[in-house]
Design goal:
By secondary structure, the protein is mainly β. 12% of the residues lie in helices and 49% in strands. The protein has a 6-stranded antiparallel beta sheet. The chain has a 5-stranded antiparallel beta sheet with strand order 6-5-4-1-7, with helices on one face. Strands 11-12 form a two-stranded antiparallel sheet. The radius of gyration is 18 Å and the shape is globular.
């Protein structure tokens, strides 16, 4: 088995052992504390665009923070266990458990988590004054771009994807978007094997 496949398998095993079979008790969004009066995460009725992280409080008492990270490269989806929810300077925590998109998914079992991978091409560069010179060969990396979380007969998708008001959207972003309808995932080409330009 090659090393990359082994790392991917361990990643999937970690997700399954922490999420599958558990129930979501509460949902929180961690946002950068912008000086605005409305919540910028509510992009549309069925899409929440979050400039940081999603935190699940599970029926086991675990707090699992879903975030963009660089386990495979910048920026994929990852997670870590938190000991507590603590608001850091410059950020805010918003509980969204009662939000219309989440309320029907609370206290229901996560039946599976599917990972949509994206192949990303990268290359190192040397800089000389204002010129960048390619170094070595291009490298292909598989990034976990989107999670499809199946909660009994419903699903949500969390993606390292940023939707902007100008529609200049960013893939593999330092940002998360939560989708509640499959047609939006298809609209933004976030399913497995879609080619991201």
């Amino acid at each position: 088995m090659n090393v990359a496949k082994n790392i991917e398998d361990r990643y999937i095993d970690r997700i399954n052992s922490n999420f599958v079979g558990r129930k979501i008790e509460k949902i929180f969004y961690e946002e950068i504390g912008y000086e605005i009066h409305h919540e910028c995460w509510e992009h549309s009725k069925n899409i929440h665009s979050i400039d940081m992280n999603v935190i699940f409080q599970l029926d086991t008492g675990k707090l699992l923070q879903i975030k963009w990270d660089n386990e495979f490269g910048c920026y994929g989806i990852g997670f870590e266990e938190l000991s507590e929810i603590k608001c850091k300077d410059g950020f805010k925590i918003i509980e969204v458990t009662e939000n219309q998109n989440w309320i029907d998914r609370i206290n229901r079992e996560i039946s599976s988590v599917e990972i949509y991978w994206e192949k990303i091409e990268s290359r190192e560069y040397h800089s000389f004054l204002t010129i960048y010179i390619p170094k070595g060969r291009k490298k292909i990396t598989r990034l976990p771009m989107t999670w499809k979380i199946n909660i009994q007969e419903e699903s949500i998708w969390i993606s390292a994807f940023e939707i902007t008001e100008s529609e200049n959207n960013y893939y593999t972003a330092d940002h998360l978007s939560v989708f509640f309808k499959e047609e939006d995932i298809e609209k933004y080409f976030l399913k497995d094997d879609y080619k991201i330009q």
